[in-house]
Amino acid sequence: DVTEIEEEEAQAKQEEQIMKEQELSNLLHEKRYLKALGLAISLDRPHTVLMVVKAILKETDGRKHLEENIARLRKDQKEAVLTFLVTWNTNTRNCHEAQAVIETLLKHEAPDSLLQYSGIKSAVESLLPYT
After folding, report:
1. 46-58 and 75-89 helices, crossing angle to 10°
2. Which residues belong to any copy of the U3 small nucleolar RNA-associated protein 13 C-terminal domain (predicted)?
3. Domain 2-128: which CATH number of 1.10.10, 1.10.3210, 1.25.40, 3.30.750
């Protein structure tokens, strides 16, 4: 009977999820945005990533800080942010943040590098009507 083992594993995963949520909240409170972005991306939380981007942009020199944080993300994290911002861009409340991230990616990534992103073609096709 493996029911007890499965329940323990589910409990451990739930506890780990709660710990990560708390860590994310602490990172945002401490304004450690790069780690907060990385954690929100790893948790696959587009709305939380958006909230981090909004918090960065509210800071003094927010655009500069956004560029610094986005530039320091790994390629897979940038790909995830790209897929998130396609959805953000379709909503007028979030389009400014999406456009700020797009601008940052276009400024700091070489065209050849951007073409290597998975899903770049569909992302561009989705962004064009709203941009």
Report:
1. 90
2. 21-131
3. 1.25.40
